[in-house]
Amino acid sequence: MRRFHSLAGLAGAVLIIFMATTGFILSLQPIADALTTAPATGDLSVATVADRVAQDLPGVERLVRSASGQLVAYTLEDGVRSAVVVDPQTGLASGAYEPSPLFTFVTDLHRSFLMGSFGHGMAGFSALAILALAVSGMLLLVAKMGGWRKLFSGSRGTGAQRLHTELARIGEVVLLLTSMSGAYMSAVNFELLPESAADTFSFAPTSVGTTVAPIASLDALAATPLSALRELSFPAVGDASDVFTLTTSVGLGYVDQGTGAMLAFTPNDAWQQAYEFIYLLHTGQGAPMVALLVGLGALAVPLLALTGTIIWWTRRSSTPRIVHNAPWRDAETIILVGSEAGSTWGFAATLHDALRQHGQRVHVAPMNDLRGSYPRATRLIVLAATYGDGAAPASARQFLGKLERFASTPSFSVLGFGDRSFPRFCGFAAQVDAALAASGLHRLVRFSSVDRQSARDFAEWGSLLGEQLGLPLSLNHVGQLPTTRKLVLADRTLYGVEVQAPVAVLKLAAPQTRLAWLGGGGLPHFEVGDLVGIIPPGSDIPRYYSLASSSRDDMLEICVRKQSGGLCSEFLHALSPGDAVDAFIRPNPAFRPARGRRPLILIGAGAGVAPLAGFVRHNRNRRPMHLFFGGRDPASDFLYRDDLNEALDDGRLASLNTRFSRVLGGGYVQGLLIDEADALRDLVRQGAQIMVCGGRDMAEGVRAALDLCLAPLGLSAAALNQRGLYLEDAY
Question: How many Å apart are CA 340 and CA 478, to the nearest integer?
Fold first, then answer.
């Protein structure tokens, strides 16, 4: 489904974007008509208006009312045809009718590409292509979010993936309706479907009267409200046997011009009613709000195409080519990969190359390519990512079914890749590990996981694998890194020295260059909660730190705890003002407060308070924010104390609750949460969002404490996460 969705979108991108763009322009016409057309008064009838038009415009042949309510009279006088706009409130001429040349031209473009019947066929094909993309996109969206019930839960992923998801959720229904209606109208145009099952009269009945009565006195016209009129054709002048042809929203009839009687009437059948309803859905004619929705749906298509192309290209470019990949029949080690966005393939390539350096014959393939047996393989290694909330990625969905027919008996190891903030972190990988064990295979290395593509997690697992294989296996995975830029240290504040846990708040700035006065060479764009990757000297592996500032602050601020033997933390702590670092920004849109005024509960310990303090600093709208902070000693490592107290004074911070572990009667932040359980439950009842930042052990303790606090409400951290109300940035 994903392959079809991607290929269809890429192949028809230009045509689909063209149709969507012209459709958006046409959606503005009903809105413009509604703003410029005076509404008809409720008591006016077709008889009244037609009588006034006939007196005001001798030679009138037809009176046409558009879906927007605009009245146009078409006349023939002295051999000259003209079209006049009629005021629906008075029935008097108000000026020459001049249709918009822009909308006329775009209408022809949209319907036929100015290419006649062939162009109509292309337009119909475009509608079918958009329909196919909309249906496949909806199915993929449901799978990604974990089911229909979770369709509108918080979206995750890269910026392009999140934007693609949000656009799809906003525009999917509109795209489905407009594409289906467009395909239907195209089918009607080519007579593949009928516009109406009934045949209209081939000729009008003859008037039974011999005299011509005043139009205003004709009962059938007087009984028809102007709002129901579609078209009124006047009888020929001087021909008493001719009749009025009346087309309304409910059917077609003929009116005697002498007696005013309805001589014959054919109501709209089901096909005609369906066509008119579908026409309204597709064009919004006469319904400005429908037109607005249609326009927004059309406007989403180019953005969906752009973000979809970015996602496709990112997935494609992040999938490396495995060099010297051994044939599966000859390989000693089989590496099977289940990857969603392609990044797991990079880890597979690193493992493949490391094993080959020790003389191993290694075959790498997707998990879906599991063979019935591997003649020479003594070990099977599975690197499995997770799609959505614990589901299998597309390249691994056939694996468990094929495993039931697997005949070889190699030892196995499963390594899961995922995001720990998801409730079912590495859920699919754990399922694969259990299934392999249940099939009778020997587990080579215990099940392990890699959180958010952590090179350290991968290296630690590699050490365990190397011990079992008797090989000095060193897995130094370096992902594809963005281009770095130089940043210089502008200021440093040191905490925690007295408790032997030094923490530095570092403020980095763009170096002064000759381009600075031109606006060049400045800071990249970033938001509070994004990550900065810093590459320490002597290493190719970046270390990531959460940002406590945004680029609008004209400085990049991070909080770094010094780790004994930590290459990057010791490097950063040794910096002096003016020293430079190589850095890049990794957006972290999954860790940002939701919009709105609902309360925000911020929970952090140690250096993890940095982005939380940044959210407080930028709380200019005085949204209720409640911070729970854990440290060691308030006299030594109460990070951001002055900033937080200032925020309390001016209302940017609603409450500040602290707990310090190295003071009498102290403890940890998770204990603080249990003590404040009543206040937490009250905030959650108000729809509060919870954001947690800090070490993994702290985050696990916080989740357990929250589960206890929220149990009386029938809630848990996992349940809130499903609703986008619990976000976690743990490291």
Answer: 19
